[in-house]
Amino acid sequence: MQSKVIRFSSQTLVPTDAHDGKGEVLFRRVLTQDDGSAFDFVDMTIVPPGCSVGLHTHEAEEEEHYFIFAGRGVMVLDDKTVTVQAGDLVVNRPGGTHSLENPGPLPLKMVVWQATRRTP
User: Fold this and answer.
1) How far apart are CA 78 and CA 56, in angstroms?
2) 65-97: per-residue pLDDT in tens?
């Protein structure tokens, strides 16, 4: 894989149902292992006001991260509910359960990436 810059502003995001959440989330998968990345995927994502990523559980080897760079939201992380905002990095532990809702008036914008732990 060659080094490159991927601009959020130049991506065409498409609506999707995110783990049976409320409404539609906009996203674009911009990088995968097929591109030579060590990550399973890297997504650019917008959660519009009133929409959510539904509660879901990852496999025991999957660690997923959300970097929120605009907006605010409410996350369920396993058995806790926390408020997240621009500048936060959320670490969803391997095998963890989580959801994200945007109850606010502005879009929540984030980059999501996942890595799977590989056993030798």
Assistant:
1) 10
2) 999 999 999 999 999 999 999 999 999 999 999
* Residues in Cβ contact with 110 at an 8 Å cutoff, skipping those fewer than 6 apart: 45, 46, 47, 66, 67, 68, 69
- The model's pTM: 0.91
Structural domains of the chain sorted by starting position, each given as residue range(s) with its CATH number in brackets = 14-116 (2.60.120.10)
Contact 13, 27 (CB under 8 A): yes
Beta strand residue intervals within 71-107, DSSP E: 72-77, 80-85, 89-92, 97-101
For residues 76 and 82, give the distance between their C-alpha atoms in angstroms, rounded to a whole number: 6
